[in-house]
Amino acid sequence: MARTRKIVIKDAEITNNCPECYNQELKITFYQKHTYNPFFHRTTDQVTHEIKCKKCHSVIYPVNWTTDIERVFDYYNKLVKPDKPSVRFTTLFFILLILVLGIIAALVYVYLEELV
Question: What is the pLDDT of residue 28?
Fold first, then answer.
């Protein structure tokens, strides 16, 4: 029902050695989770990261990080400024809200007119 997407909020190339192929072309990417629904779009405060080698295309997990990679990760982690968590309602939500309020108001009016 609800779709979730990871939106890139920070992308940087770092020159540390890859633990797999010892190449010096790594890419660190920070993502923020967004949820899309027909009624609202939610921006969460959940931030994830991924370090990937550009040569061997392997994902480098924190278990395999060297101290240099950890240091660079901490630096870029401080630079990341995620969007504030928020909820934005869609047009469909407002149309349904107006319809429901209109129906309730009409029912109350009809009920009050029958009493008089």
Answer: 94
